[in-house]
Sequence to fold (714 residues):
Amino acid sequence: MNLSLPEELTGKTGLRTEEMILNVGPQHPSTHGVFRLVAKIDGETIKEAIPVMGYLHRGTEKLAENLTYTQIIPYTDRLDYLASMTNNYVFCHAVETMMGLEIPDRAEYLRVIVMELQRIASHFVWWGTYLLDIGAIGPFLYAFRDRETIIELFAELSGARLTYNYMRIGGVKWDAPPGWIDKVSEFVQYMKKELDNYHRLVSGNEIFVNRLTGVGTYSREMALDYSLSGVMLRCTGEKWDLRKDEPYSIYDRFDFDVPTSTDGDCMARYHLRLEEIVQSLRIVEQAVAQFPKDGEIMGKVPRVIRPPAGETFVRIEAPRGELGVYIASQGKDKPWRMKLRRPSFVNLQILPDLLRGENISNMIAILGSIDIVVGEVDA
Amino acid sequence: MTSLLEQTPSLLNVVLLALAAVALLAVVLGFVTYAIYFERKIIGWMQLRPGPNRVGPLGLLQTVADVAKLLLKEDTRPKSADKALFALAPVLAYGPAFAVLAVMPFSENIGFADLGIGVLYYIALSSITILGVITAGWASNNKWSLIGGLRSAAQMISYEVPLVMSVVGIILMTGSLNLRDIVEAQRDVWNIIPQFFAFCVFLIAAQAELNRSPFDLPEAESELVAGYHVEYSGFRFAMFMLAEYVYMFGMGSLITILFLGGWLPPIEALGFIPGIVWFILKFSLYVFLQFWLRATMPRIRADQLMSFAWKGLLPVALINILLTAFFVSYSNGSF
Fold:
């Protein structure tokens, strides 16, 4: 869409248009943290958008080289701080894979329950803040009310509300306190009904639908070329979910669907995330039903964790997409090199392409639909 | 009170009129203070929050504290701003907001100027505020302000057209531009019934005129940071805020007068209740609607906003004029 006047017209009227550099962020309220976007605009049309990252860079990968394996876990909490549990898991999973550790059933169930609850909580934050970007303030607080229940559950389990540091190599740190599992299933039942209200409040709203439909569209090929994952990939019709396609942990024991859409626009991503909440609730429900009555929560793990020399790469389906960890070990108690495949960072790469030629009023809607967490983008 | 204006000016007249004006100012400022309080309270309740509850009993002095804070703040101005225009903009936005209240008949006997062209006066004067907004956007020398100011100007000018057009139907029915006559003409039935389409158009266009949700694009926090007043702080900012809320007062009064029968009771039997009570009730209903919308609605997109004004509201308003004209001529026996 090009709004600038044709040349012969500007020549006659003497109107001169000029491009302007617009700096979005790092303190802009809708960049979800300290992300910066330098946009070259002509009128209200974006000619070029350059993402500037690194304001939240903490050098996690480098720091990890000087930490023992157990000490790295709290650092993973702070990558994608809206999904600490999945970050915990992917790191522990990598080390466990290297060492070939057996994880007790009870620990695996606890892991799956917290990871799926975490996915729900993460999508709530996305839903709330996205609506905030679109201009509706109410949904944000409704989403946070329900996320609060999950956070309370996590706090009961691990003592923390955001950075849980819950998982350990070989299992989990704390067992579920008495009655915790019941509270989880109570929440699942409540949320199944409550989700209808989310749809009733927002999904059908004319203004909302008009703002999102057909905005930020890209094709399946483009998504694959950019190596997108998670909802960003599934909204183009590519059915790819690591929980189904490369089951890790005990995901092969549960019955759930992978929602996809072929529209590839912001609206598709909106609906997919809400649909993922439903599927996660299904998984939690089954996990709660199958939860072993007793058992260990930590497997047999050597006192000092020294994975054998070699390297490994594992990947899981985090709320934002494919989260991978590469660890190169030289047989010491500290990794020689750790590398993270952060879905927020990878998914963000498509942004300049999506924004080119867009109206600036779509900028926030498109950026928001990618669902980035700057802690993960910058690591 | 109106009689004062018609007498020859004397010291007594002038003093009385000045006192009355001050009284109105106090009422309006009191309204603004508590409108902000109730807005925060009501939206708070709708969003599972308690709202302000710390300053004074039930938080009733919250706005007072806020205003005091704004007054005591350092008056900052960006280095590269256009000094004169930067200072002028809030006044331009704020002056007309108060001036429009002069023609409002709040009840049978409370009202100031009884202009023959009351409606026209309101519409003409309220347009001046656009100048204040666009001046603020330009003078701040900030890109966000500029975009906000330009959007605002485009929006307010576009929506002024359907707003005016929707009132034409009422003027045709009443045969007068005087606000008092318009209310008196609603003795039998309020304008909201015969002029229902006009009411809808007016209500929507008024939202856009007031820059309130879902048309709050000029100050779209999540997109434009704060729009045209991003560089304003302290009392200059307070003046923009004040202008916005005084306009809400003005628009609430206008919509009550034009469509909801002003001070008239809904049924004749309730006529013993003073007119001003009815006026306040209807007016409060409108103000509540504002808060409700703000708590619920997402923000419309700029380009859709424009096409909605020109392709949606304006045709409806024009058809309404045509139909009204037809019925008025028919009942006058012109056919």
User: Anything to note?
Assistant: Chain B has a mean pLDDT of 83. Chain B has one domain: 78-331. The radius of gyration of chain B is 21 Å. Residues 252 and 283 of chain B are 5 Å apart (CA to CA).
